[in-house]
Every structure is written in C-alpha cells, then in structure tokens.
Amino acid sequence: MGITRAGLKRLIEMHEAIWDAWWPVLLGLEPEAARRAVGGSFPSVLATTAHMVSQEIAWQDRFENRPSERSLGAAWADLAEVHRHWERLRARRAAWLEGADPAATIRYTNARGEAFESTVGEIWFVLVMHAHFHRGQLATQLRLLGRTPPSVHFLRFVARPQPG
Fold first, then answer.
1. Pairing status of strand 115-119 against strand 105-109
2. Which helix or strand (DSSP H or E) is residue 108 part of?
3. Rounded to whole angstroms, how far apart are CA atoms 110 and 118?
4. The CATH fold of domain 5-152
5. Rounded to whole angstroms, how far apart are CA atoms 84 and 44?
6. In which residues is a divalent metal cation bound (predicted)?
7. 132 is in an annotated binding site
8. Averaged over 73-77, what is the pLDDT?
9. E strand segments, 110-164
10. Has residue 1 got a pLDDT over 70?
C-alpha cells in the first residue's frame, strides 16, 4: 500500500478534523455519565476514548522511536484529562509530520511480544480504521446515555460536488 507524503498529511488532517467534531460532545458529557458502563469493547465512553487516544500516543511513540507505556489511558481520570493528552499528542504529531516519510519502515512488538514491521503509511491506515471502529462504538454508547453523537464521516472531506 503506497501513500504519498501529501496523502499522509491529508489523511491525518481529516482524522484530526473528525476528532475536532467529537471533542465538544465528549467534553460536554457529565463525568458520571462518561464513566457509566454501557457496553462495547470498552465499557464506557471514558474507557473507549482513553483507549483510542492512548493507542495513538503509543504509535506516535513508535514513530519517534520512544518508549511507550502499554496501559497509558487506564489511569486517566476523566475526559478532560484524555483531551489534554490528545492536545499534546496533536502538537507532537504536527512536529513529526513535517519530516515524516510514509514509506519508512517501523519495527515494533505487539502486546503478545510478537515482532512485526509495517510502513508509516500502512500504520496510519490502520490507525484511522481503528478510530473509525471505536467511534462507532462511542456513537452507540452516547445514544445509550441519551446523547446525540456528531455526524461526521471521511466522505465529507473527499466528496466533490458534480455539476447538474
């Protein structure tokens, strides 16, 4: 799977714009509601969001060849703290993206200790799909809490109107 540097930047821009649409809804949730177990891969909106952000941080650490904590998001107290970590990640990612090579190979070990390698572009494709999957779960969790999730999709960023 090949992706250009411009394509990688665009993919990350779209990914971050979707997060931007979600944060007001997430941060508007009462702390008790954010912690309430409603089901999903992770039991609550807080746990799901913390997982999503912590995974993006773990991959950014790998891109920057830095050590990473495996259970980073589990200790975050509330969505405001998750958002603070997200903002720091976003700043790190912007600096990294200036010199990022989508064809660069990243070697990594998964949670089971198995070694793999993938390109930055391939990993970013997976990161976006991972976030999309869990945003679907967040949408369900929010609805179970009586809230309305944002309606945002990647198509919004790539669809071009046609005349007539």
1. antiparallel
2. strand 105-109
3. 12
4. Four Helix Bundle (Hemerythrin (Met), subunit A) (1.20.120)
5. 19
6. 51, 130, 134
7. no
8. 87
9. 115-119
10. no
Instruction: Specify whether the CB–CB gap between 68 and 61 falls below 8 A.
Output: yes
Residue whose pair of structure tokens reads 């999309």 in the numeric block = 132
The two three-digit tokens of residue 150, written as one number: 């944002």
Longest Cα–Cα distance of the chain, Å, equals 56
Residues comprising the chain, all counted: 164
Does 130 show up as a binding residue in the annotation? yes
Q: Measure the CA–CA gap between 120 and 90, rounded to whole angstroms.
A: 17
pLDDT at 69: 73
Torsion, CA 38, CA 39, CA 40, CA 41, rounded to 10 = 110
Average pLDDT, integer, range 102-131: 94
φ and ψ of 99, to 5 deg: -115, 10
Taking the C-alpha atoms of residue 132 and residue 153, their distance in angstroms, rounded to an integer, is: 9
- Of the pLDDT bands very low, low, confident and very high (cuts 50, 70, 90), residue 70 is low
pTM for this one?
0.92
For the chain, which residues make up each domain, given as ranges?
Answer: 5-152
Instruction: Give me the mean pLDDT over the 138-149 stretch.
Output: 97
